[in-house]
Amino acid sequence: MKTIAILAARLIFAAVFLMAAAFKFAGMADTASYIAAAGFPFALPLAWIAAFFELALVLAFLTGAYFSEAALLAGAYVLFLAFSFHGPSHWQGNQAEFGFFVDHFTFIAGLLFAAVHGPGNMLAVRRSAFNGTHAAA
Fold it and tell me: How far apart are CA 98 and CA 84, in angstroms?
């Protein structure tokens, strides 16, 4: 059961970031407009960087390579997104933004748990695979 739960969690993490990246690639101009509306300069390059970063997270979650590091980076990214796009300055205009803000923290909690416990023993590329000692489990 533990292995199934870990693999399911990895697939969920990957799916969330894959959907986010897909939406960015499908509507890069819209994503850039959203970023600009939040007050960030260089919105289009930031949108492209975010999309490729999310793809890198997908690869890490699916393969297990650099899994804990990816989960920590993803947690920091989700925290940044929570405050930048759904933080306190957004609550007055739309009460639902508070709910979106809080939802980010449940996701962060899962990512932190994943970072501590790793990708599991099944279908995970180990760091040693990158230095030539052995490959995936």
Answer: 12
Query: d(Cα 110, Cα 107) in Å, to the nearest integer?
Result: 5
Burial category of 61 from C-beta neighbours within 10 Å (exposed 0-12, middle 13-18, buried 19 and up): buried
Question: Can you spell out the DSSP letters for 51-64?
Answer: HHHHHHHHHHHHH-
Give the end-to-end CA distance of the chain in Å, rounded to a whole number: 18
Helix axes 67-86, 43-63, angle to 10 degrees: 140
**What would the DSSP string read from start to end of 71-91?**
HHHHHHHHHHHHHHHHSHHHH
Mean pLDDT, rounded, of the chain: 90
Backbone phi, psi, residue 92, to 5°: -65, -40
- The distance from CA 97 to its chain's CA centroid, rounded to whole angstroms, is 19
What's the whole-number mean pLDDT along residues 81-102?
89
